[in-house]
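Field reference: sequence -> structure
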Amino acid sequence: MLYFALQAVGSSVLVVLLAIATGHLHGWHDVADFTARIRETLQQPGMQALLVMLALGLAAATILWLVWRRSPRLWSLAQPPGFGFVRPSRLGLLALAVVIGLLAPVLGGWLTHWLAQGHPVTQNIQQLGENTPLGWRIPLMLMVVSLGPLVEELLFRGVLLSSLQPRWGRFGAAVLSSVVFALAHLPGLDWQVFALPALWLLAMALAWLRLRSGSIWPGVMAHAANNALATAAWFLAAHAG
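Structure field:
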């Protein structure tokens, strides 16, 4: 909850600072036109991508620091309650993780479109990428396939899974943490509930990788591969344009 709250609050603060830095918001006399000034700032090329990268970086860095400060000994423990920042039990699981990550958006997209029954399926991150200049898409994609998967795997397959396991067991903890993962991503999907099954199945696959390998890295790699394939459409759209 804190991670997503930091992104929301951080975005609000950062957009005001960006508006001031770019000269779109000069002082208190602009407060009456505050919304218009902020909208004007975000319409500048690459500004929305910059805002997302700054907010994600701020939230991720804060969460990583807080988790490390609170539980430094758990990072190097393979199985829950540890967070699994160790070598996987089988290196072959890293290759399997990449395959899972590449298949997930394809199969998940098919399932979501089937459940949507003709309703348009959109994602905020896809719309953001397609409306961002090509030069800004590269650093944005790097953030989406690196820092994003790392901090989300730490939170959902590290902290949350470990917290739930003593009460609910391994399977129950995997199911419940996957439900929370799916629900947490609904705002980014414009609350399209027919995307929940695909998100839940992806999260279950990531939880299986975490528990099977005794490491967080296969899940990070699968998550990164999933995000990379999902965001590859940005560059295809730019080439088609």
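Note: The mean pLDDT is 87.
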